[in-house]
Design goal:
Elements lengths: L2 E7 L15 H4 L10 H11 L3 E6 L3 E4 L12 H6 L8 E4 L2 E4 L4 H17 L4 E4 L13 H10 L9 H23 L4 E4 L5 H6 L4 H6 L6 E2 L2 E2 L10 H11 L6 E7 L18 H11 L4 E5 L10 H12 L1
Parallel strand pairs: 1-2, 2-6, 6-7, 7-8, 8-10, 9-10, 10-11
Antiparallel strand pairs: 3-5, 4-5
Helix pairs in contact: 4-6, 10-11
Length: 321
């Protein structure tokens, strides 16, 4: 292994002192509480000491899952700060699944990009990675006011984008701005995204993976979360691997495969992960055949776990071969 990817902004918060986001409840117990040290500073230092790269993993839009994670939002959380300002109406949205930033607004997209830039400015990270969550719902009510305003702004005779096209354009603008901000600070820092495996689902949530894989200026790498095995009835691993390989055509975009170590040896997917102890090794072998650029294993805690012992040992043999 040569890189560690750590979630440092799970819920519109930060595992480091930030001028844009409150402290995460993960390190302070309660969101907004200073833990008294800088976890990110320590993690970068420790990872580099181990001669590995450190990539900061960010969730760009999620603020709160449901109403209980985190259970309390800090007073200075942007969701709370913006509630009393009519000029920022719609910048955050509450749905049945939680609270989210709305990338329809340039100011929100800039916040996300500035947050990534802040990390690159203050820490010796090797990469920034966006998680696979973008628009949380296909429901038009999520951003109805913003979309209607956009449609009305289209000049007479022009044809506005459909809601889904418009959402993809918003996310693309956020992604490309983040890429530019990172490169403006340090061109050597990699920017990547780890979308879910199903391309159709990605496109429905505004994640324009087809563009990210084929056009310069969005990402340095794409790492689809291929958390399926060869027997998956909807999207078998080999089919998904071939699809992503064919789709990734930009010469400067690396393709990594995210593998589900946490499922190995478990009852997941109707027990199909228990049928063999070399499923991950087979996935690595196929990934090499289609010439992907590497693998990311989710998650680290299962690399040394009774459940996955045989699978991980066989992966190590595959790497050594």
């Amino acid at each position: 292994m040569n890189a560690l990817v750590v979630h440092v902004r799970p819920f519109g918060d930060a595992l480091y002192p930030s001028q844009y986001y409150p402290w995460s409840h993960i390190v302070g117990g309660t969101q907004g509480r200073d833990p008294g040290y800088d976890p990110l500073e320590y993690m970068v230092e420790a990872t580099h000491k181990a001669e590995m790269e450190f990539h900061a993993w960010l969730n760009p839009m999620r603020i709160q899952s449901g109403g209980d994670t985190p259970s309390t939002l800090a007073e200075n959380n942007n969701y709370n700060v913006w509630q009393g300002d009519s000029s920022k109406a719609g910048w955050t949205v509450q749905t049945a699944s939680g609270k989210y930033y709305n990338p329809a607004y340039p100011e929100v997209r800039k916040l996300v990009a500035d947050g990534a830039k802040e990390i690159v400015e203050h820490y010796d990270v090797d990469g920034i990675q966006f998680d696979d969550y973008f628009y949380p719902s296909e429901d038009p009510a999520f951003d109805e006011a913003a979309y209607n305003a956009y449609v009305e702004s289209v000049s007479t005779g022009g044809k506005p984008l459909s809601l889904l096209e418009w959402r993809r354009a918003n996310v693309n603008a956020m992604v490309s701005l983040t890429y530019s901000e990172i490169k403006g600070v340090n061109p050597d820092v990699q920017f990547g995204i780890s979308p879910q495996a199903n391309v159709s689902n990605d496109l429905k949530m505004g994640a324009d993976v087809e563009a990210w894989c084929s056009v310069r200026g969005y990402v340095d790498y794409i790492c689809p979360q291929l958390y399926v095995n060869f027997e998956n009835p909807v999207l078998p691993y080999d089919v998904a691997a071939e699809q992503w390989r064919e789709m990734t055509t930009a010469s400067n975009v690396k393709l990594y495969f995210g593998l589900a170590v946490y499922k190995a040896g478990s009852d997941a997917d109707e027990g199909t992960w228990k049928k063999a102890d070399n499923i991950l090794a087979q996935q690595v072998s196929l990934g090499r055949q289609v010439e992907c650029d590497g693998f990311m294993f989710y998650s680290w805690e299962y690399l040394n776990h009774d459940q996955t012992k045989e699978e991980v040992e066989n992966v190590m043999k595959q790497f050594a071969g």
